[in-house]
Each structure stands twice: as C-alpha cells, then as structure tokens.
Amino acid sequence: MLQPEVVPPPPQRSRAVRHPLVIFLNFVLTLVIVAVIAGGAGLFIGRMQFNKPGALDQARTVSIDRGTSLGAIADILTREGAITSKWLFMAGVWMEREQNNLKAGEYLIPAHASMRDIMEAMVGGKGILYSISVPEGLTSQQIVDRLNADPVLVGDISEVPPEGSLLPETYKFTRGDTRENILSRMRRDRDRTLTDIWNRRASDSPLKSAEELVVLASIVEKETGIADERSRVAAVFINRLRLNMRLQSDPTVVYAKFGGKGKPSDYTLSKDDLSTDSPYNTYTNGGLPPGPIANPGRASLEAVANPSRTRDLYFVADGSGGHAFAETYEDHLRNVARWRQVNGGNGGAAAADAPDAADDGDAAPAAPVPVAKPKPAASGDAPMALQPDQ
Prior knowledge:
Layout: H1 20-51, E1 60-64, H2 70-79, H3 86-95, E2 105-109, H4 115-123, E3 129-133, H5 140-149, E4 170-174, H6 179-199, H7 210-223, H8 230-242, H9 250-258, H10 298-305, E5 314-317, E6 323-326, H11 329-342, H12 357-360, H13 376-379
Antiparallel strand pairs: 1-2, 3-4, 5-6
C-alpha cells in the first residue's frame, strides 16, 4: 500500500533576519521609500499648482515696496487675490532660488496669471512703467522742479546739478524709483552723448573743448525751436566766434538777469536789460559765456558740432515762427524791415538803433542778432521782444 511521503519542513528563518535591529531598519527603509514617493508626488502636484493659471478673474495692480520680505510679498499677493496659497508661492520661489531676486515696484498682475508668472515678473522687474518728459532748453533748476512735482518718484534731491550737465529726454521708471536716480541717468546719458558728438565734430570747429560745445548748444537751444534751423543758427554763432564778433544773444541776457529760475512769463526784456552787468551777457562780453545757460538736447549738440556751411552772420524773426538769415548787414536790415512790416510796424528799434561797428569793437559790423521766440515748452518763458544789438 502506497504511503504519502512526508514533506520536509520549511527552512527556519535566519536568526539575523529576526534580529530586532534588522526589523527596525526594514521599517525605516519602508518609511523612507513611502516618504520619497509621497514627497515626489507632492512636489509634482505643487509644481503643477505653481504653474497653472491662477483664480484672479481680472487684472489687478500690486505695489511692492523696497525691502519687503518674501513672506510679506506673499501676504500682499494673497490679500489681493493674486495667489491662493502663501506657502505654495514661497515654496515655489525657494525651489527656483529666486527669493533674493524679487524686485520692488508696481506690478499689473494679469487675470489668471500663474504663481510662476508673478514670480518671473518680479524677478525681471517688469513693473508698470511711468515716464517723465524733460524738454530741451530747461535749466537744471527747472528740471529739478519738474522732478519734484512728479507724484510717483520718491526721495529728495540733495543739490541742483550744474547747468548743462543733464540730457533732456523722456525717461521711463517704475513706482518707487528716486528722483536722484533719474538725475543720475540724465547725467550719464549726457556724458555719453557728448563724448560721441564731440568725437564727430567738424575738424575746423573753433570750439576748444566739449564743454564749450555745450555752452554754445545751450544758446542755440534757446534761440530756435525749429529743428531745421538749429544747424544754421549754430553756424551764425560759429562764424561770429571766428570773427571775434560778440554773440549778442538775448537768452544770455535772460540768464544773466534771472539765472536758473528763468524769466517770469509777464516780463519783457527792455533795451536797458541788454547792459546787465554779468559775464553771461553776450551783448557786453565777447566770446562764450562762462557756462551753459540751459540743458541742450541732442539735436542742438549735433548742430553745434557740425553746423551748416554758411557765411551767415545775422538772423531775425521772419514773422512765421522761423528766421531770416543774412550774410551782410545790409541784407539783415532789409530782413528786419520786412519783419517790422509783418509785425505791423511794432518791431522795436532793432534796425534804427543798431550801433556802428566802432561802438562795440567787433572785427566786423556788429549788426543785431535779435533772438527768436524760444520754445515755450522748453523754457516756459513768454516770447521775448526783439532787441537791438549793442
């Protein structure tokens, strides 16, 4: 009779496997594996939440002041409804290692912007841009006044920059930017522009330095607001400098009397003003003034560096906003007469009172160079009356 074979018993577990330390280590390893899996899943889900479109249903403006911490930024964004989780935003920023790169500013958060979109906008400083336009021909004091009046810029200006040291342009900035920073940008742009233009000046220019170029450009800037005339007005003054003729520019008289504050709008220059005792008065002093009378723009600097090739020595308003130019004193007197006719005979004594050449010691007949109407936008002055040469 067949008998079933006895099945051998299973081998006994190793004592090492049953050791409490091994059991504990296996438990720990299991926990680590579970934690890694859970952490990876959490990281994946968190990254998806960080990158997915937000719940903000319409664009919103958020302002971040300088020195605001990451936690405070997250609080502001949460309060404004731009993000749904302060901690998720902070974790995402930390994971991207951008916690020290978020910039202050005023930001327009688009509707449904993700947390990543918001972070990248702040890292890039892509805030709302404001602008301030500084017209050509303003004095440094007038520029400072304009900056002080801007409600978005912050901070005080410690001192008024030297005349002619700023480049008039339109400057972009974000909320929280300082007035001193705008002035620094204007100085840097002016220095860079001046260096470039000075290096490209006409080889026969009588100007001895870049600063002399700025001085003459400031006069040209105040003499005409017509772009096509700048180089020709510059040529008149360059030609006069070559002949040792006085420049006889009314804007220099204005600066001699009122300095950087500018001429009051209700003030009209008189003949007596032309004898104002000041080194800036080009009616009573030969050569260039000791410094600029305003901050010239790029176009006027270019015009002085490379003026028109003319022999003009005189110009007078032509009644249409521009000027009539002349090489000779006789032609200039005819232009003055035409101007007086256009002006209804109220042209002042520009021609009748013009002195003889011997009266002011010029190397050529010292005919008048009456000033044109300065650009109102640039100077804020009312049009100046036509004045005789002295």
